[in-house]
Amino acid sequence: MTTASEDITLDGPREGPRSGNAPRQLVVLLHGLGANGQDLIALAPVLGTVLPDAVFVAPNAPSPCDMAPFGYQWFSLQARTPESLYIGAEEARPLLDRFLNDELARYGLGDEQLVLVGFSQGTMMALHTALRRAGACAGVIGYSGLLVGGERLAQEIASRPPVLLVHGDQDEVVSPEALPAATAALQGLGVRVTQDLRPGLGHGIDEAGVALAASFLQDIFGENES
Fold it and tell me: CB–CB of 136/165 below 8 Å?
């Protein structure tokens, strides 16, 4: 089981800023179960055209995946009850929080310049962590994930960053029904949510989903920096 031990330090591939300037934004990419930071850092060159002054960081999750012979996990998914998902995400959250704080300090940035992008289990962690941080980040982008602990969120929510959720309507791993469920729960708590159900898409990210992310980033930062 993943624990937020002080002995664990997250790290992974980094890219940017493509402008060569000092970073003005920090985009943290959180991979899914059984993958690693290399899985999502490929988004950096594309999203970097929108945010050329952004630094992209894709940390490897803290534990070896217990359901595959390779890759990492934020927490075990061998049990997938709502309670076990909440416990797993909550145990991993302090470690991710510490990483985010350290990265912001590294680049001299504030929460208002931070974006979390997640895929699958990474989306679970992005939402679970961002909504409980005292300082609101600039935004959260979640692909093919779900909202963990939605029934507890009213008591635990600390900030309300804008959220983009994208999900394939043919997702065979995380039910597409997770999209409207998360949207309704978040909107009910005053979170601005943009959602898109991608036709014909399974458990993955398509070009249209990346384009939605680029538009979302332009919107939340109020300018086109390309």
Answer: no
